[in-house]
């Protein structure tokens, strides 16, 4: 029997052994239940209220826990794991400050529809509401940013609650679910019986769409002369990328992918127009504004995509496909609403859709526009340009890496200049725009994909928010390649202050940042630096040849801007083109 089959068999044997009914503690019930949910790695940080849980981990070899250096690092790592794998990410923190340190990460996952199960400890049930030491009402604090939350009152309820939590997190519009476990509940003895059934009153997401709405969509496509598809993160989350590709090829409709939709459609193909919105391509934005049919597939019409709402897609009939009915019509009036799972909807559509011959002139026009006005920048042999760095990373990795980013200019340059061939290769904070997300999310992505190259692209600002997680890369030999685009400034804030606030630069100077090479070495990680093209290629090759984690700092031009740019209050075809102008 080969090693893979042996591993599969041993996993099944482990699970069968753990299913045996026994009287055990709430903590042991929790750990067994997580293993039975196929959880491969939990990211966490211990404290008083979860000590029974961490005590239960001692000697439990079938349970894998990674100790981060901050709770925010733990939840961003769990988030990156979920985005890169499609599985539910799991993290654990103690009560009070441990739990509140997770709030930013919970909000990040909620805004981007990422499935997480977040486990927190709490003070004993007898102390809840007394302002006890390290007590915080974490279920109340996080109510607006979770799909659901549980305050566990009895250890016997844990198998059902955990099974439900994973189901809720990873079905419908996905998102974070919080389980708050008081300390006495984690110590309480109860009969463990695995939960296998799901019966949640009032929770039944619509997966299969209304057939009449599908027929309306097919008719609208047949009549359209200037159709366009706007594909978002929902395509990736549903696993519907193959169905989307089939739909685009069959129909011949050009497609633009949002920031979170990058990789949902191969970026190298002719019908892909690029990314839309504030820093989108000229062709995507002008196509949306001139289209007579806009088919939104799994995107939520975020303001960064739409620009001035009253002027968005003014000529288009709007079709909106989404698993969450609350998103349809929320921002943009919808003519043909289709509630359902993207993958399921597209499977039905693909049975009937025909090639749009009426759109031949439209396709030719957009192809010419795409060739004439691609993303562009003025290169330099004297200074290292950040756009060139991203292009170099793409070339050297052959577009095969999983790329995570922090938030800011480097994030937009990565979205513009790294071409994504497949889904779940792009991990970034979209809705919340969370600085500090990029590096720890790469740790989670690498844990989910141990055999793939993971590149974490960061700015010199965001890198300092979770840099302490370098320790776990060194200790656990997690081979993430950390890129720092160092322009010595809060770049996106500086760009706005230059273009919108008349060059009134206020509190953006990061010149007091550490020597990132020495910082990496202090944690036991290889560090490299480059400030010109020749050195950049050389140090990147050295970092790639190193079999462990590495930090590569690229010192780039301070005053480089991200273009195109749509300023707030403008329609998306009113773009500042920068050097192209």
Architecture overview:
Keywords: Amino-acid biosynthesis, Branched-chain amino acid biosynthesis, FAD, Flavoprotein, Magnesium, Metal-binding, Thiamine pyrophosphate, Transferase. Pathway: Amino-acid biosynthesis; L-isoleucine biosynthesis; L-isoleucine from 2-oxobutanoate: step 1/4; Amino-acid biosynthesis; L-valine biosynthesis; L-valine from pyruvate: step 1/4. InterPro entries: Acetolactate_synth_lsu (IPR012846), AHAS_TPP (IPR039368), DHS-like_NAD/FAD-binding_dom (IPR029035), THDP-binding (IPR029061), Thiamin_PyroP_enz_cen_dom (IPR012000), Thiamin_PyroP_enz_TPP-bd_dom (IPR012001), TPP-bd_CS (IPR000399), TPP_enz (IPR045229). GO terms for molecular function: acetolactate synthase activity; flavin adenine dinucleotide binding; magnesium ion binding; thiamine pyrophosphate binding. This protein is of the alpha/beta class and 581 residues long. The chain contains 23 helices and 20 strands. Strands 3-2-4-5-7-6 form a six-stranded parallel beta sheet. It has a six-stranded parallel beta sheet with strand order 11-10-9-12-13-14, with helices on both faces. It has a six-stranded parallel beta sheet with strand order 16-15-17-18-20-19, sandwiched between helices. The mean pLDDT is 96.
Q: What low-confidence regions span 5 or more consecutive residues with pLDDT below 50? A: none
Q: What composes the largest sheet?
A: 6 strands, parallel
Superfamily at the CATH H level of the largest domain?
Thiamin diphosphate (ThDP)-binding fold, Pyr/PP domains
Number of helices: 23
Amount of beta strand: 15-25%
The residue-averaged pLDDT reads: 96
Across the major sheet, the strand order is 3-2-4-5-7-6
Percentage of residues in helical conformation: 25-40%
Structural class: alpha/beta
Number of domains: 3
Question: The CATH topology of the largest domain is what?
Answer: Rossmann fold
| Counted beta strands | 20
Query: Which radius of gyration do the C-alpha atoms yield?
Result: 24 Å
Which architecture of the largest domain does the CATH hierarchy give at level 2?
3-Layer(aba) Sandwich
In one word, what is the shape?
globular
**Name of the level-1 CATH class of the largest domain:** Alpha Beta
> N-to-C terminal Cα separation, in Å?
64 Å
């Amino acid at each position: 029997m080969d090693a893979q089959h042996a591993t599969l068999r041993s996993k099944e044997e482990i699970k069968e052994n753990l299913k045996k009914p026994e009287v055990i503690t709430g903590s042991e019930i929790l750990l067994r239940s997580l293993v039975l949910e196929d959880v491969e790695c939990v990211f966490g940080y211990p404290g008083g209220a979860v000590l029974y849980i961490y005590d239960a981990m001692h000697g439990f070899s079938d349970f894998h826990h990674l100790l981060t250096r901050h709770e925010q690092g733990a939840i961003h790592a769990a988030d990156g794991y979920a985005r890169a794998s499609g599985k539910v990410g799991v993290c654990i923190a103690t009560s009070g400050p441990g739990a509140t340190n997770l709030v930013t990460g919970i909000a990040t996952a909620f805004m981007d529809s990422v499935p997480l199960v977040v486990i927190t400890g709490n003070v004993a049930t007898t102390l809840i509401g007394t302002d006890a030491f390290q007590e915080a009402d974490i279920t109340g604090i996080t109510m607006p940013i979770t799909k659901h939350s549980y305050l566990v009152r009895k250890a016997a309820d844990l198998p059902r609650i955990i099974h439900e939590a994973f189901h809720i997190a990873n079905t419908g519009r996905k998102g974070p679910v919080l389980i708050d476990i008081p300390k006495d509940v984690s110590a309480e003895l109860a009969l463990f019986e695995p939960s296998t059934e799901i019966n949640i009153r009032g929770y039944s997401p619509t997966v299969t769409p209304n057939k009449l709405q599908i027929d309306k969509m097919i008719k609208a496509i047949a009549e359209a002369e200037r159709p366009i598809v706007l594909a978002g993160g929902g395509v990736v989350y549903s696993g519907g990328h193959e169905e989307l590709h089939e739909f685009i090829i069959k129909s011949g409709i050009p497609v633009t992918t949002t920031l979170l939709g990058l990789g949902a459609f191969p970026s190298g193909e002719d019908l892909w127009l690029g990314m839309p919105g504030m820093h989108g391509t000229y062709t995507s934005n002008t196509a949306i504004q001139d289209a007579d049919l806009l088919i939104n597939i799994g995107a939520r019409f975020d303001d960064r995509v739409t620009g001035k709402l009253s002027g968005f897609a003014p000529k288009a009939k709007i079709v909106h496909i989404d698993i969450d009915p609350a998103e349809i019509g929320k921002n943009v009036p919808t003519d043909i609403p289709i509630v359902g799972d993207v993958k399921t909807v597209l499977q039905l559509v693909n049975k009937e859709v025909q090639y749009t011959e009426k759109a031949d002139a439209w396709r030719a026009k957009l192809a010419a526009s795409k060739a004439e006005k691609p993303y562009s920048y003025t290169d330099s042999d004297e200074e290292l340009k950040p756009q060139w760095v991203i292009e170099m990373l793409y070339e050297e990795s052959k577009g095969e890496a999983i790329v995570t980013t922090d938030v800011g200019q480097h994030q937009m340059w990565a979205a513009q200049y790294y071409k994504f061939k497949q889904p779940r290769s792009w991990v970034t904070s979209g809705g919340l725009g969370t600085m500090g997300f990029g590096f720890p999310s790469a740790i989670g992505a690498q844990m989910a994909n141990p055999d793939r190259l993971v590149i974490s692209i960061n700015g010199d600002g965001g890198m300092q928010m979770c840099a302490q997680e370098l320790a776990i890369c060194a200790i656990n030999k997690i081979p993430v390649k950390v890129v720092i685009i160092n322009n010595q400034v809060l770049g996106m804030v500086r760009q706005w202050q230059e273009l919108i606030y008349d060059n009134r630069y206020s509190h953006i100077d990061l010149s007091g940042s550490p020597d990132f090479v020495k910082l990496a070495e202090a944690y036991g990680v290889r560090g490299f630096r480059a400030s010109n093209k020749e050195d950049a290629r050389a140090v990147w090759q050295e970092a790639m040849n190193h079999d462990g984690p590495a930090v590569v700092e690229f010192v780039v031009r301070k005053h480089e801007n991200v273009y195109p740019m749509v300023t707030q209050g403008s329609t998306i075809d009113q773009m500042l083109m920068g050097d192209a102008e």
